[in-house]
Amino acid sequence: GDSVTQMEGPVTLSEEAFLTINCTYTATGYPSLFWYVQYPGEGLQLLLKATKADDKGSNKGFEATYRKETTSFHLEKGSVQVSDSAVYFCALGPSGSARQLTFGSGTQLTVLP
Amino acid sequence: EAGVAQSPRYKIIEKRQSVAFWCNPISGHATLYWYQQILGQGPKLLIQFQNNGVVDDSQLPKDRFSAERLKGVDSTLKIQPAKLEDSAVYLCASSSTSGDTQYFGPGTRLTVL
Question: Is B100 in Cβ contact with A96 (below 8 Å)?
Fold first, then answer.
């Protein structure tokens, strides 16, 4: 079945550091890929998404590129802020859809001032 | 636009007791999801409704869990009787007919003692 493997955390960075959180997936066909973020005490929020190979999703300075050849969707940000501290989840869904999402285990990011 | 509402936010019960969670999706969203998120793991889909019909309940432990969405709007998830391993955050999400994005509520944190 479909699965998502995320870089294990926790990850601790200093403010303005470069962030990469690795995500790889196993799926049949051409899934849609997502990054969700969960701030303390809140529900999951969609951060960005990509629905086909080579698409780049971006939002709030975060980016991720759908790489079918490596089955990856790594999350990057050039300069993190303290307010980026949260848990980040990679997820996949059926082609062109966010239904029936399969989530990775999440990566806790802490950014220190 | 109001988001997905859930109540209660926190619940503590003893094993073998019963508990119910309530979810009100975003107005007009036909699809509603319940997820279980165990500490340190990603959300796992329990059940998906399309209007008031069940689309997928393959991962719902039907011997103790039940869910309904009688009028195609609000939904309740019930556990009876609860076990220690049911301690988790229960997330509700909804999406429109296009299904391209799921919107999550803040969740209900259940502790079973």
Answer: yes
Which percentage of chain B shows pLDDT scores above 90?
A: 83
Give the H or E element holding residue A64.
strand A62-65
| pLDDT (tens digit per residue) in A5-52 | 998 889 999 999 999 999 999 998 889 999 999 998 888 999 999 999
Q: How far apart are CA A109 and CA A37, in angstroms?
A: 10
Give the strand pairing for B53-56 and B108-112. Answer: unpaired
Q: How far is CA A76 from the centre of its chain?
A: 9
Strands B108-112 and B10-13: parallel
> Looking at the complex, does the CB of residue B111 fall below 8 Å from at least one CB of chain A?
no
Determine how many CB atoms are found less than 10 A away from the CB of residue B28: 10
Which residue type occupies A61? G
Distances (CA, A) of B113 to A111, B15, B82, B85, B90: 34, 6, 10, 10, 17
